[in-house]
Amino acid sequence: MLQALNYALVDKRYNDETDNVWFILMPKTISLPKEKKLTVLCRIEPGCLGPDGLDYIADFCRFANQELKQVDANFIIWLPLPRYDKSLPEMQYSVNQKQLSHDKAAQYLDHFKSDLDDFEEHFHDKLSLLIDEFLANKKA
Asked: Which superkingdom, per the lineage (predicted)?
């Protein structure tokens, strides 16, 4: 008898160069309590929404927040905010309101068999899709 895999499909990626489809799986886990989840504060520049981005960035961040709630929700709290001050970092990580260094965030993600660079790349890919979706809805 086959047992159900204890993995959840996190993402499906298609490689145009090789015609391969990659399925990214993550072990299913019980959701962590809020105080143990990694908070990912991501500052999003208005310019990514085009020349009128300043007019839409707050709405986009609210939209992105709703969409990101389903992404890695068992161990991540997403906090997309407008990036008005470029002196502040684009990404910041914390647990229970305690800020983590880049290395500590990498160690945290390692517990979930996730690499920080891959995690950030996955986030930026998702963000790009959300921007396209948001702008398409604005035009409609």
From this structure: Bacteria
